[in-house]
Design goal:
The complex is a heterodimer. By secondary structure, chain A is of the alpha/beta class. Chain A has helices spanning 12-18, 65-71, 107-124, 148-160, 169-179, 196-208, 221-225, 247-271, 285-300, and strands at 37-53, 75-83, 86-92, 128-134, 138-145, 185-190, 212-219, 232-236, 242-245, 275-280. In chain A, the strands form three sheets. In chain A, strands 5-4-3-6-7-10 form a six-stranded mixed beta sheet, sandwiched between helices. Chain B is 25% helix and 27% strand. Chain B starts with a strand and ends in a 20-residue tail after the last helix. The chains are: A alpha/beta, B alpha/beta.
């Protein structure tokens, strides 16, 4: 199914291996139909949750008469409500995502692999998946749907998008936070080459809206290690700017700046309970996803 | 700063290689599309001054390392304060040993020769340089370098032994300088041990100027240390030399006359037993010496007029055992041939008679030729040339000059026309007043052509009546002069020969010179002088080059001796030569040490053992310093290019987790 239409970013074998691992959410979701995920509402499901004192207005049919017979008090029996989730997959399509080292995928391609696989897994387990592509503006905004045919639409968009233009990730994330009112799983795929503080404010905004936020921080190994030893002319992927530099002279400062940015992100994400997944593009994306899914399952349990 | 290999300094531009490579690298930089410009711009902004400085420092250190390498291989020398700072022991110490016979004189109050004492002192002084310097011995006899492994072995070296040679100090030093230039030695000292004998040092020799100029021009400044043994003998000292061996074929029985000269430092009359040995017989003659130089003719009877043999003359021992013996050889009589060049047969006949006055004497032969045939003459066959014609010109003049250089004797008479030859000129003919002549009033009576006879009879030059003359001018020594001080006879030494110029011709209208009272003895004496290279061919001085064929082996008749170094009689086939000390070795005159210092001109001279340091400091070789500096630069560069210590916070989340996607 996945290879139909030449989907290079989706590997059926990887999907087949990962489909056994359900993807959960750390927070209760409010879905429209029954699903795998916890709902904030108590309902009449089969899964007992707790007893609660009767309050005026409660449906008297839910009063547990046996308990009344024993204790002479009115208790209402509550059950867990399971529902589906809505997931927003947000892809940063700014120019910097096009960076690729020789023989490796670009960050955008890598993100496409992750998104396509996750989208498939979500829809396969009955959840709704939507896609938002951003660069200097909102390129695509596909609302979450749980229809398997919706998957084709997502893949078509993924096929079409390319990395170009400056990043407007912060503004766009605020827009998404404002627009999506219902609890959702928001997964952001980006290199986060923007100031850490405003970005963390976006995360805070999303969390304020009760979204479960996952940030996939994608970077290339060259960007992390800066292993150049000869003079280089660096051409900015997001602007016409160029910089002729002696890597040996600036390496220390570069690495220091990268570390500071990563540290700030990590601390910010911890503070706002945002799950940060740091991924280097030389890693096997299947392993990355497997670790991610397993981690989620452990946290839910 | 000077360099021993200055040509290698052309490699200095190589030091710019790191800069060129750096610029080249910058030119051929790679372009890369980059996403993380945020960090790059931040790093560029924050890149500290130290980081940039470090890059330039690395570049500078690389350049300096190469500069250090090039300078080290160019072998720099430091002078002045730098040399003072880095002075090291000289790379080479050249020991120049005066091995002349005069160095065999005993030290005052001891039984050790000056040469042996010099070797002892040199070996002692060399001790402190044993580990750091190389020793090379140059002796004055052979003037060849001998590597000395252990300076303590100096006194035992065969090249440091006693000889009967003279020493040519400037020539030996010249050989040292040439050796140093050829072998490109570093800084070196010359330790010169000598008795400062004037004849050996030749203070008037122009070679000193050339030598000191060369020494001063050496890239490494040379220091000379003098070890002087100029102490005069304490007691009486004498020496003997043989000046001439003359055959007397007419004597009955035939005899050989040995002319010996005994020099003394005490001119007071004193008896002297002289032992004269010849062909196995030994005789003693008791002489009563007077004056500092005593000349004695000893008649030695021989078997026949053509017999050959050898002998030795020996004086009693004194402070120098080396100068008490002299050797002589004699052989069959030699035919002395004279050549008369004259365009007038009558004149030629008179001159031929003057050259060969005895009709039955076959040992004197005179030939007369016309000047036109002079160009075809084999000059070297003749002992003397009498020239009564216009002064030679062109090829003949060149041949005659060559003949003089090789030891020939030439007498040139006035011929009536002005001319010149070898710096002596004949002016316009002058006529004396009617009935008058120019009397000759002054002439050298002690020696030379016009000297008194052995019987002290004066040559009758005052009886010569000169009515026509051609005044002599130019260079030369006047042997006789007219009353008006115009020279009558002039002598000039040319090479090994002598040229005599006469202001009159043989014609009767010029003078009565043809009558022979003066002409014959003077011509005979010139013939003897010119013939000495034939008659005295067997009498040579030690160190003199032997005119012999290559590969000739000389055997000493008295034990095993080296013909180049030791006095004695040597035989090679039928030929026999007597080697003696050079006559100059008998001269006792020495030069002052201060004079010896001045001979070296700008070259620094110290007396050996004088520890005073100052301007005489040697220039030191600094290549080690530059090599060390290069290593320091490379080490510093290596430290600077070391990657900085990783930050404490690693990028753990980004460590590789798996294989390729």
């Amino acid at each position: 199914m996945a290879e139909r239409g030449g989907r290079t970013f989706l590997d059926p074998k990887v999907v087949a291996r990962l489909v056994q691992q359900p993807m959960g959410t750390r927070l209760p979701m409010i879905g429209s139909v029954a699903g795998l995920h916890r709902s904030p509402h108590r309902g009449s499901s089969v899964e007992f949750a707790e007893y609660r004192k009767y309050a005026p207005g409660d449906d008297i049919r839910r009063v547990d008469w046996r308990v009344y017979a024993r204790t002479d008090r009115f208790y209402v029996k509550e059950f867990e409500a399971d529902t589906n989730l809505r997931c927003y997959l947000i892809l940063d399509c700014s120019g910097s995502m096009a960076f690729r080292a020789e023989g490796r995928d670009s960050k955008l391609d890598y993100a496409k692999r992750l998104i396509a696989t996750l989208a498939y897994l979500l829809i396969h387990q009955g959840d709704a998946a939507g896609l938002v592509c951003l660069s200097d503006r909102m390129l695509w905004d596909i609302p979450p749907k749980r229809n398997p045919r919706h998957l084709q639409a997502l893949f078509d968009v993924l096929e079409e998008v390319s990395a170009r233009g400056e990043t407007a990730l912060i503004r766009s994330l605020h827009e998404v936070a404002e627009r999506v009112r219902q609890r959702a799983l928001v997964m952001i795929f980006s290199d986060f080459f923007c100031p850490a503080e405003p970005l963390l404010e976006c995360f805070q905004h999303l969390r304020f809206q009760k979204h479960d936020v996952v940030a996939f921080h994608l970077m290339d190994r060259l960007e992390l290690d800066f292993p150049f030893d000869r003079p280089m002319r660096f051409v900015d992927l997001e602007s016409p700017e160029t910089l002729l530099s002696e890597p040996a002279v600036i390496r220390d400062q570069y690495l220091k700046a990268v570390r500071a940015h990563l540290t700030a992100l990590r601390e910010g994400c911890n503070r706002f309970a945002v799950e940060l997944q740091t991924v280097a593009t030389d890693e096997n994306y299947e392993m990355v996803l497997r670790a991610f899914l397993r981690g989620r399952a452990l946290k839910i349990r | 700063m000077t360099f021993l290999e200055p040509l290698l300094l052309w490699g200095l531009p190589l030091a710019l290689l790191p800069v060129i490579i750096h610029l080249f690298n910058r030119l051929r930089h790679r372009s890369i599309d980059w996403g993380a410009m945020m960090f790059l711009l931040s790093a560029t902004r924050k890149s500290t001054r130290y980081a940039r400085l470090r890059q330039w420092l690395i570049l500078l250190l690389r350049v300096l390392a190469l500069v250090g390498l090039v300078l080290a291989v160019a072998r720099p020398l430091a002078g002045q304060w730098l040399g003072w700072m880095f002075q090291t022991a000289p790379e080479v110490i050249v020991v120049v040993l005066d091995r002349s016979a005069s160095m065999e004189a005993r030290m005052p109050g001891g039984n050790v020769s000056k040469r042996a004492e010099a070797l002892r002192v040199l070996a002692e002084a060399a001790q402190s340089y044993r580990e750091s310097s190389r020793f090379v011995l140059f002796d004055t006899a052979l003037r060849t370098p001998t590597e000395v492994g252990d300076p303590q072995a100096l006194p035992q070296l065969s090249t440091a032994g006693a000889t009967d040679t003279a020493a040519d100090i400037p020539a030996t030093l010249q050989a040292v300088v040439e050796w140093a230039q050829r072998n490109k030695v570093g800084h070196f000292e010359i330790w010169l041990a000598s008795d400062l004998q004037a004849s050996n040092w030749q203070p008037e020799n122009q070679q000193w100027k050339v030598l000191t100029t060369q020494m001063a021009a050496l890239p490494q400044t040379v220091r000379v240390r003098l070890l002087v043994f100029d102490q005069p003998p304490v007691g009486e000292s004498w020496s003997v030399s043989i000046s001439e061996v003359v055959r007397r074929p007419k004597a009955e029985p035939p005899e050989v006359e040995v002319v010996m000269v005994i020099d003394r430092n005490n001119p007071a009359p004193a008896p002297m037993p002289v032992s004269i040995g010849s062909d196995g017989t030994r005789a003693q003659v008791d002489l009563e010496l007077t004056g500092p130089s005593y000349r004695y003719r000893h008649k030695l009877p021989v078997e026949s007029a053509t017999a050959s043999g050898w002998g030795r003359v020996e004086l009693p021992a004194d402070d120098n055992p080396r100068d008490n013996v002299a050797y002589f050889v004699y052989g069959p009589p030699v035919v002395l041939r004279s050549l008369v060049v004259s365009d007038e047969p009558a004149v030629g006949r008179i001159l031929a008679l003057a050259a060969a006055p005895y009709v039955n004497e076959t040992n004197f032969v005179a030939e007369v030729i016309h000047p036109d045939r002079a160009s075809s003459v084999v000059w070297s066959d003749y002992a003397m040339v009498l020239w009564h014609a216009a002064p030679p010109a062109g090829p003949v003049a060149a041949q005659l000059q060559q003949y003089l250089e090789e030891g020939g004797a030439v007498w040139m008479f006035a011929h009536g026309r002005p001319g010149s030859f070898e710096g002596i000129s004949w002016g316009e003919p002058q006529e004396a007043e009617e009935g008058k002549s120019w009397p000759i009033t002054q002439w050298q009576r002690q020696d030379g052509l016009l000297a008194n006879t052995e019987e002290n009879i004066v040559l009758p030059l005052n009886e010569l009546e000169v009515r026509r003359r051609q005044p002599l001018g130019g260079a030369g020594t006047a042997l006789a002069s007219y009353e008006d001080r115009v020279p009558f006879l002039v002598r000039r030494v040319v090479g090994r020969g002598e040229l005599v110029a006469c202001s009159v011709g043989i014609w009767p209208e010029w003078s009565n010179l043809r009558e022979g009272w003066v002409l014959v003895p003077a011509v005979q004496r010139l013939l003897q002088a010119g013939g000495r290279r034939f008659t005295q061919a067997g009498m040579l001085s030690c160190g003199q080059i032997i005119p012999a064929g290559a590969g000739e082996v000389w055997t000493c008749l008295e034990g095993s001796k080296d013909i180049r170094l030791h006095a004695g009689v040597y035989r090679s086939g039928l030929r026999m030569v007597a080697m003696n000390r050079p006559p100059a070795e008998n001269e006792v005159e020495t030069i002052e040490p201060s004079k010896a210092r001045t001979l070296f001109g700008p070259v620094s001279v110290q007396m050996l053992g004088d520890r005073k340091q100052g301007e005489g400091r040697l220039q030191s070789e600094l290549w080690r310093l530059f090599l060390f500096a290069m290593l320091v630069f490379l080490l510093a560069e290596a430290v600077l290019i070391l990657p900085s210590k990783p930050e404490s916070a690693p990028l753990t989340p980004f460590q590789v987790k798996g294989g390729t996607p």
